[in-house]
Amino acid sequence: MSAQQMLLFSPDFQHPPSPPNGTTESPSFEVPEQEYEDPFCVPGKPSVVQFADITSAAFKIRDGIVRTPCMKSHLSELTGMEIFLKKDFLQFTGSFKERGASYALMKLTTEQKSAGVISASLGNHAQALSYHGQRLKIPVTVIMPIVAPIMKIQSCRNLGANVVVQGRNMKEAKLIAMKLAKERSLVYINGYDHPDIIAGQGTIGLEVVDEVPNIDAIVVPVGGAGLIAGVALAVKTLNPHIKVIGVESERCASFSKAVENGGPVMLDIESTLADGLAVPMVGYNAFATAAPLVDRTVVDKRRMDSYCNLAVGRVGKMRRRRSRSCWTGSDFSRTVRRTKRKASRIITVRR
Ligand SMILES: Cc1ncc(COP(=O)(O)O)c(C=O)c1O
């Protein structure tokens, strides 16, 4: 544990035992064949998140998360319009996922807090839960598939979570997590579809509208659609004129497919550099909340494999109107580097 973490976390709190650093826990869990139902995410009975849920999340999590800046970017010069970037990579674990994770943990009952929570994640949600679980003294177990980045696995261990590396992909990891949740009476917290997660992510939208006047459009990367659902609900409630544009890679275009299909549909996805976006099916609650509010979803058809480039390219089409745009997401530095390199191409991207 780093010196900084030691300052933040009370030394008397212990999570359930984790395996030694750098090793994976012995694979003692079979991948269950049976599907387990998540009571918070029921097919055919979606919960539509309300604006009041987001304001209540903003109030509850205000001491545990960073109110990140939304600053004008030098991408503005490249594109001839005003682009602002919401720098949520400045959260302690490097992503906006902390907002939803901390709100979901704070909403648990006393009994649920002492039993602990479980989730399956490739990394960002797992780190967010681990960090806030340690901060709030709530035991956290994360099932991470074997394809999860080793740095993120290690980071969750460093944050004291009980980390199980198991399952060939997210689908298998989730089945294992749901089974364990049932057997051990743990609350399963879906990283993009639990209503409290969506409400927590929506606090980004409140902050953006508060910080940047006269926004024309907000561009949001889409994985399981929790982020876009919360952000769209927040910004459209505060200012219905703001356009909300989702971006996703053709390799995992689960939101666009859900729009075509009239509801979430399971896809065979391919891997992408933007690993957080590789979700084969958007969430039921996320889709029901987001679908009526999202103006447009843009899919990268040329396999550029970067939602970041795509976002700027598409927004670039609006430059004649001198739009003022905001862009949420946490991959800021890589985004800017890649964008600069490909600048001339980006602004000429055509449909
Ligand atoms: C950096 C980053 N951006 C965007 C997303 C997409 O969020 P959601 O799954 O809520 O759509 C994720 C998901 O993990 C992420 O990690």
TrEMBL record:
This protein's record includes keyword Plastid: no
Per the UniProt entry, the Enzyme Commission number(s) are 4.3.1.17, 4.3.1.18, 5.1.1.18
Q: Which domain of life is it from?
A: Eukaryota
Pfam families cross-referenced by the UniProt entry = PALP
Which reaction is this enzyme known to catalyze? L-serine = D-serine; D-serine = pyruvate + NH4(+); L-serine = pyruvate + NH4(+)
Listed CDD domains: Thr-dehyd
Entry's Gene Ontology BP terms: D-serine metabolic process; isoleucine biosynthetic process; L-serine catabolic process; L-threonine catabolic process
Q: Which residues form the Tryptophan synthase beta chain-like PALP domain?
A: 61-297
User: Which family does the UniProt entry place this protein in?
Assistant: Belongs to the serine/threonine dehydratase family.
Q: What is this protein called?
A: Serine racemase
Query: From which source organism is this entry?
Result: Bemisia tabaci (Sweetpotato whitefly)
